[in-house]
Amino acid sequence: MSKYLSKPHLLRGYKYDMRIYILVTCFEPLKAYMFSEGLVRLATQPYSTAKGSLKKRFIHLTNFSINKKADNYKKNKTGVTDEQTGPEEEEMSSKWSLVQLRQEYDKMGINYDEVFKNVKNLCIKTLMAVEPQITTAMRATKHRNQCFEIYGFDVIIDAKLRPWLLEVNVAPSLSSSSPYDKKVKTLLLCDTLHLVGYRIFDRKRVDDDKKKENKHRLLGFQSQSRPANKQ
User: Fold this and answer.
1) Global model pTM greater than 0.85
2) For the residues 116-136, what does the mean pLDDT come to?
3) Cα(161)–Cα(209) distance, rounded to whole angstroms?
C-alpha cells in the first residue's frame, strides 16, 4: 500500500528522489554495504499542489524514464563527482551526484550526514523486514555462500527531512544515459566485484583444462584395455 507524500523536500523548487545502491553479501548474518555515490533525480517542472497541476507528470514524478521526455530535461554531461563545484548549468541538470546534493544541503543549512544516517537506517530496516523469507529460500540453495545482490533503493525526503522508501529494485538498471551514469555504475560494479572476490572467467583456460582431462582419461582407459605382456 502506498501513500502520496504531499510535502516533499525540494531542491530549488523541484521535487527529487535518490537512487541508493546497496550490496548484500549475506543475510544470515546480515552484511550490507552502501555505495558512496548514487543518483539524485529531479522532476523537470517546479513542484506545485495546485488543482491544475495534479495531472502533470513532470511536476509530481521523478522517474528518469518520464522526465527525459520533457522539453527542459537537462542531461548531466560531465559526470562531476569530486568536491569542486561544477558550472552552474551542470548543477542545474536534472540528475545530480550525492556530492552535489551535499553541497546544496550545505548551502541550505542542512546536515547532510544526519539525513543520510536516517537513510542508512531505513535501508537496514527494509532488509531486516525481508530477512526471514530470503534466508528460508537461501537454505535450499546449494552454493549459498557464493550469492550476492545489488539492490537499488529509491528514497524520497519529506519537508521535515525524514526519508521514505519508494521501492527497492532487484538487479537495478546498469545502463548509462550520461557520462555521470556511466561513471557511477562502472565504479559500482568494480567495487562490487572486488568486494565479493569474484574471479574473471577464462573460457580458453577452462576449455584447455577439459581437453587435458579428457586426454588423460582416454589414455588411462587405453592402457587398462591393453592385455598384459607375457613373460
Assistant:
1) no
2) 93
3) 58
Whether residue 218 is contained in a domain is answered as no
Name the strand (E) or helix (H) holding 36: strand 30-42
Domain range for 97: 10-201
The distance in angstroms from the start CA to the end CA of the chain is 87
Q: Residue 140 domain-assigned?
A: yes
* N residues, the chain: 231
Give the domain CATH number at 34: 3.30.470.20
Beta strand pairing call for 95-96 and 149-157 = unpaired
Summarize pLDDT for 71-97 with one digit per residue, the tens: 777 877 655 544 444 444 445 688 899
The answer to whether 120 and 35 are in contact (CB under 8 A) is no
For residue range 150-204, what is the model confidence (pLDDT) as tens digits? 999 999 999 999 999 999 999 898 888 788 888 999 999 999 998 888 777 778 8
Question: Residue 210 has which C-alpha cell?
Answer: 577439459
CA atoms within 13 A on the CB side of 159: 6
Burial class of residue 138 in the structure, from the number of CB atoms within 10 Å of its CB (0-12 exposed, 13-18 middle, 19+ buried)? middle
Share of the chain above pLDDT 70, in %: 86
**What stretches of 94-199 adopt beta strand conformation (E)?**
95-96, 149-157, 163-170
Number of structural domains the chain divides into: 1
Model pLDDT, residue 34: 95
Nearest to 46 by CA among 59, 33, 28, 61: 59
Residue 215 lies in a domain: no
Is 184 within 8 Å of 38 (Cβ atoms)? yes
